[in-house]
UniProtKB/TrEMBL annotation:
Record flagged with keyword Transport: no
Pathway annotation: Cell wall biogenesis; lipoteichoic acid biosynthesis
GO CC term, one of those recorded: plasma membrane
Transmembrane feature ranges: 20-37, 57-73, 80-102, 134-155, 176-195
Name of the molecule in the record: LTA synthase family protein
Membrane topology according to the record: Multi-pass membrane protein
Keywords: Cell membrane, Manganese, Membrane, Metal-binding, Transmembrane, Transmembrane helix
Binding site for Mn(2+): E288, T330, D503, H504
Domain of life: Bacteria
Coiled coil, from the record: none
């Protein structure tokens, strides 16, 4: 009996082993396990939330959905398809990791539309790749080798020889029905593994996350990386292919928001600084990746920024000036500064919406008789600048083709040559007054300028990217010093307002070198603020108005600041910022949904719309998050309004409605006027409203025609 039992068990085991060995979907299971392992490894590299139970389920569900369809394929087609799928997903994970190290964000569809710029980022990309990253690609040779072997081993002629020359047809109706049932089961399993955890989080700590779309990292922490890319594809398709347009409620919310902001902006028109630089030239420099923490710092007894340190005593300096950029980085800073609206949560406004109507500085200053130029020693197609600058109504865009490449350095020519040639270009135009916007490039990641150009010893930081950044900052400071000398030599210094600010952070997020340079440990809030703070200088002729303003301000406030300086009313222009020179205050809102108002500093959590960290800036202590609730709600609304306005090109409609409201108010005034009212005051009021509403559009039309 025992012998028979053992024999039966042995036969059963052999049969089971043979069945498992012939199971046709081992390849799919291995691909699923391999990719989920890589997703777990990648999550540890990103360090933004951790692999919780929900994310595990979502990742498995995403891979089941990615592979369920192979059950309908034959052995060879299945092996090839799985190898290609493994290759595509692995390369995507690798690209996401490298992109995240630079941008602290994930690749999105709008970013892919900018893929033609990758060749220009080659040096930065290589510096962001680590040897250990090959774990994401190590199984690809095995998958491709197996696919090649399967194509050889399961070719029809070979199978026929193994079966004595008989061709075996494996696709029967019953087999098709069985595969269809299996595919349906797998698809249902995959969907349930995603929908369940996502809905559970949406109904909890991630409530409202998919409405605002402020930040991609919390979305990733709900959906996992593959789920994020699926959602991003859906989001892009909905916005661009299946959008039902903007609702009346959204338009009204935007109008109400701008109506509420306008009194704060108009306050500047009755303050002493209104017209303080009326008729003066403006030279504004946007310095690549230039951050505030280098200002006033020394290393080995040598100042990192000696020229800017000296300029502080002669200028109006804002140490609490924050960059507000998103994925568009340099182009976002340009958009924020010139047009006073927020960038989009994904991609760049310059690329996605270059044909939309914005109230930007060049267009406004053209109407005031200014000669407007923009200078950048790089390819004009990068960030779609050719098209965007034409839409912004610059009188002339000087790109790399307009510069002599006499100082090859880094990405282009060095900033010393660039700024000197910019002055040459301004002189050649001979226009007065002028508004010139110069965008530097020598401080671009990975900051690998030659030592003979930087002439700055970084000590213990030598050989590190952080040390390279300090050297690049020293070089840029020297270039600005030479620019100031040149402006004085050319007689422009006493008739020009020089403005300078940093465009975004330096993409270096390791806390240790900052602590080593500054000489103290940093809290999370302090580190976040250091990353976000960039310098802002305004030097008036004759060193007027010099001092340090502690006011919390951001890039979005730059255009209103220039309008106040030059004595230009806001009128019907739609901007979100308020002048930095004004006594009026508002919070500085970050693209992540964080904000600061100079009293508190709010950092949203990596995972959702609730929670986060609230700090009191009085002593740097952590406050109850409820102290930031009102500010967070206001920040969310500001971002929501900006996104709707930018995406749906609403500024013309908002200006039209404002004019209509003005006409309606005057009609009401006329109806209620007493019988003895002769109508002269009403006529003058009507005429002023008409001029305010039409001057900007008519001036921009004439400028556009001239171009």
């Amino acid at each position: 009996m025992n012998i028979q039992l053992r024999t039966t068990v042995a036969k059963g085991a052999k049969l089971a082993a043979r069945g498992l060995a012939s199971w046709p979907y081992w390849g799919a299971m291995l691909v699923v396990l391999s990719i989920v392992y890589k997703l777990n490894w990648l999550d540890h590299q990103l360090n933004v939330g951790g692999m919780n139970e929900w994310k595990w389920k979502v990742n498995y569900g995403a891979m089941v959905i990615a592979t369920f369809w192979v059950v309908w394929l034959g052995r060879r087609a299945r092996a090839v398809s799985l190898a290609v799928l493994d290759l595509i997903i692995s390369v995507l994970l690798f690209a996401d990791l490298v992109y995240f190290r630079y941008f602290k964000d994930f690749i999105s569809i709008p970013v892919l539309l900018q893929a033609n710029q990758v060749s220009s980022l080659e040096d930065s990309i290589w510096s962001l790749i680590h040897r250990g990253d090959l774990v994401l690609l190590c199984d690809i040779p095995v998958a491709l080798a197996y696919a090649a072997w399967a194509c050889w081993y399961w070719r029809p002629a070979r199978i026929a020889r193994r079966n004595g020359g008989v061709q075996v047809r494996s696709s029967s109706r019953s087999r098709l029905m069985l595969n269809t049932a299996l595919a349906a089961l797998l698809l249902a399993m995959g969907i349930s593994m995603i929908v369940g955890p996502v809905n559970q989080q949406k109904n909890g700590w991630a409530s409202g996350l998919f409405v605002g779309n402020w930040w991609n990292i919390p979305i990733y922490n709900v959906t996992g990386l593959l789920g994020f890319h699926g959602y991003d594809t859906y989001r892009y398709a909905k916005e661009h292919w299946f959008s039902g347009g903007v609702s009346e409620a959204q338009v009204q919310e935007a109008k109400d928001w701008f109506d509420a902001r306008k009194p704060l902006q108009e306050q500047a028109e009755s303050e002493p600084m209104f017209g303080a630089a009326k008729g003066k030239n403006i030279l504004m420099i946007q310095a690549e990746a230039f951050q505030s923490f280098v200002i006033g710092q020394s290393l080995g007894g040598q100042e990192i920024t000696p020229n800017l340190n000296a300029l502080i005593g002669k200028s109006l300096y804002f140490p609490n000036f924050y960059h507000q950029t998103g994925q568009g980085r340099t182009s976002d800073a340009d958009f924020l500064t010139s047009c006073s609206l927020h960038p989009m949560p994904t991609g760049s406004v310059f690329i996605r919406f270059a044909d939309h109507d914005f109230n930007c500085l060049p267009e406004i200053l053209n109407a005031q008789g200014y000669d407007t130029t923009v200078h950048h020693a790089y390819d004009g197609s990068f960030w779609n600048r050719n098209n965007m600058y034409h839409n912004m109504d610059y009188g002339k865009f000087y790109s790399i083709k307009d510069f002599d490449e006499d100082e090859p350095l880094g990405w282009s020519i060095g900033d010393k040559s660039f700024l000197q040639q910019t002055v040459d270009q301004i002189k050649e135009r001979g226009a007065s007054p002028f508004y010139a916007f110069a965008i530097t490039i020598s401080g671009h990641h990975p900051f690998n300028l030659p030592d003979y150009k930087t002439e700055f010893e970084v000590g213990d930081f030598d050989g590190t990217t952080f040390g390279d950044y300090l050297q690049a900052a020293h070089y840029v400071d020297a270039a600005i010093g030479e620019l100031m000398d040149r402006l004085k030599d050319e007689g422009l210094w006493d008739d020009t307002v020089l403005m300078l600010y940093g465009d975004h952070d330096n993409s270096l997020y390791d806390k240790k070198p900052y602590e080593q340079l500054i000489g103290k440990s940093l809290s999370d809030e302090e580190m976040d603020a250091i990353i976000r703070k960039v310098p802002f200088f305004i030097h008036f002729p004759g060193d007027a108005n010099a001092g340090v303003s502690e006011k919390a301000v951001g890039q979005i406030d730059t255009a209103p600041t220039i309008l106040q300086m030059l004595g230009i009313p806001m009128g019907e222009n739609k901007m979100m910022g308020i002048s930095m020179l004004s006594a009026a205050e508002k919070p500085v809102v970050f693209r992540t949904g964080g904000f600061t108002d100079g009293k508190v500093y709010y950092m949203p959590s990596n995972g959702g719309t609730t929670g986060g960290s609230c700090y009191s800036l009085a002593d740097g202590s952590a406050a109850d998050v409820s102290a930031c609730d009102a500010g967070k709600e206001a920040a969310d609304r500001e971002l929501r309004v900006s996104d709707v306005v930018v995406e749906h090109d609403l500024l013309p409609e908002l200006k039209k409605r404002t004019m209509n409201d003005g006409f309606a108010a005057m009609n009401d005034q006329k109806k209620s006027a007493p019988a003895w009212f002769d109508g002269r005051a009403l006529f003058l009021t009507y005429l002023r409203a008409l001029i305010n509403g039409l001057t900007f559009s008519s001036a921009s039309s004439s400028v556009g025609a001239a171009m």
